[in-house]
User: Fold Cyclin-like domain-containing protein from Molossus molossus.
Amino acid sequence: MLSPAAFHDPELASALVPDNVPAGTSASPGRPERPQGPRAPPGLEEALSALGLQGEREYAGDIFAEVMVCRALPQRALPRTVTPEMRALVVDWLVQVHEYLDLAGDTLYLAVHLLDSYLRSGRVRLHRLQLLGTACLFLACKMEECVLPESASLCFLGAGSFSQAELLRAERRILSRLDFRLHHPGPLLCLELLAALAGSNPQVMLLATYFLELSLLEAEAAGWEPCRCAAAALNLAHRVLDVAGSGVEPALYSPAELGPLEPCMARAVLLGPAPGRAAIFLKYARPQRQGTSLFAARLLRRPQPGPP
Assistant:
């Protein structure tokens, strides 16, 4: 269940071939060689059961390989016409629409992934950024939601800045430029798996989810692997709450690999409800999310324990 690109990476393929298969041979006679996913850590099947995925226990290793080996977007700069602040403004608006329509969490992450993929693939007209974000959200809904929002509703939420015909044309342009490659295992499932493996309590999980969602506002986050981003959010949440987890064995990332990600998330938390990027702060300030954003900055300002 690895992405097709992984099959053409000789270094990755050789690293993922099972130990009992000699190099350069197929896993079974008459069938092409297919690299296997990374070895699942102990307790993965139990973690899937804890997430209500008992029926997937048989495929635990494949699920782990799918979500944990997902590659990040290429490290390309945004188009010259789009600044990180403009991108954050669009993402902030998408968060508001996503919450208003009560969509699934994975829908938001997929929409932002499609937006970043499109932005890094060519030029974008600045006055069409909101239309582009809406079309990405519409496509993400078609991938993740059981009930789709109506295109007319999305145009209404856009305050009439684009028509239904323009929305559908933008959708076709995205599909063409991305070559219909819409599947992307988002970081939410990674976070849930890692939290279950680490024995994280609900408060840690909620704070980590807040850190993870804030990372959507940061343009550099598009260059992070979903699982590494989720691991950084969970590790930071454990440290600021000073809660010890059982840890994941074997460790997926070293402190050095998570080091560049955590400060970026911390800066976003400390920035608070800045103009044009306040939607996530306000969303997590509500009682339904225990006012997480209201105390997160205070926790981060406390002296933090160093990495083990």
User: Anything to note?
Assistant: The chain is about 55% helix and 0% strand. The two ends are 34 Å apart (CA to CA). The chain has two domains: 78-178, 187-301.
